[in-house]
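I'll show a typical protein example:
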Amino acid sequence: MSSLFMIVRYTFVLVIFSNCKITHRIVDSGEVVEDVNTFWKTVNSIDTPYINISQKAWYQDGIGITQICQINFVTNGSDQSINISTIGYRFLDLKKKWAYEYNGLSDTALMMRKYRFSDTTRFIGGWNFVNRISHPIDSFRILPDTTISKITYKQAKTSFLINKTKYEGICIFRCDIKKSNFQINKAISNQMGCQLAFFRKYPVENPQSKNDEEIKFISNHFPDSIVKVFTAWKKNELLYTVE
């Protein structure tokens, strides 16, 4: 009888442990990226980056969270400086089209507001999970591959129109990442069949006025702190529905 009890107890504990492992594997899987935008200008005939804004974003099963940064121009007499600060985090249920904004990235962060959004919404600040504009491509020319930090990237040069102004772009692709919910420009990614990881665009008549966007693919798993955030904010969504 004692041996039978030990076998039953061992089997019960094993089932619980196995379930815990499976559950953990599901909830911590997702995408973590960093979206970096750099704006350039010419200073003393030298191309100089004057704004560099970096925002992290997370995605899991139709839910997106993005850091929201704000650019502040500070004027002191004839001097002007630029300050970039994090003003909050946005939680998006991409299926329900509900948005929640929080004052920090923690499971106890304060919810500041909630609202509906649509597929045409252009959010101010943060990664835009919806309505990513992909301009039609006029030309696409493949360039030689390049290797950065032991990763081989494909390259291409493209041209397109934005508000009747002709632009050119330098594209760098990561073909080791087969699928991602984070797309800089889906039309260009589809042209190469790989993820567009870096995109420099500039007007043909003023190439010094260029803008870079880079997606840094950080991880396919969340640390425990982010798992807690997703869990808490999903519960808040059930408690505080959007009308």
Q: What stands out?
A: The longest strand covers residues 29-43. The first helix runs from residue 2 to 27. The mean pLDDT is 87.
